[in-house]
Specification:
single chain; 234 residues; mainly alpha; 8 helices; 0% strand; elongated
Length: 234
Amino acid sequence: MREQSFDAGRIARIAGLLYVVIILAGMGSEVAVRIPNIVPGDPAATAANLVDNAGLFRRSFAADMAMALSDVALAVLLFWLLGPAGKVLSLMAMAFRLVQAALIGASLLFQHAALLVANGAPGFDSGDREALAAFFLDIHAHGYDLGLVFFGVACLLLGTLIWRSGFLPRWLGGLVFAAGPVYLAGSFARFVMPEIHGPLQFAYVVPLIAETAFALWLLIRGVDTRVWKAGAGK
């Protein structure tokens, strides 16, 4: 049982480190690359940015792939770590998170397609390339939000597991749970009510705070191994 207790603390810190990688890579790609270089309503300016900053977009692709790969590993670690709080719920949370990672990973193909088209895909004139690049980037954004629908459900399940675990603080579970409706509302808005998608962006501060707090808690504090060990032994 001592080995189990040690493993729980170590796994929690590895999970926290992976979560920090996910946050930094994801925010870096969005804030440092996509937001400054994608100009809504101006395909020509967007295509020009894809040409001028091609290397930056390739590094963004690498960062997003690191994020998706880390998310797959994190899903498995959280399944193991939160299993004592509810094996079925923990399995469901892992499944929803894995679907999210798969969809976000697949959507990166459209961002890369935009980069390839803007940088001289044969058979298209400049106007076609600009329009196609903007279209592919829009599909990427929709694919990203489709993935976040599944992640929103995962947050609801994770928040519940943390709340009832006893080896992580309940306030942390409440924060993670609160992130779920934000992801669900924001993602569904893009598909069914796009006119309110923009105004909803301010609400994403809730998931940012929740996920950062969860990541840092796992990385710095870990879990109460005595309580975890008692739950794992049942």
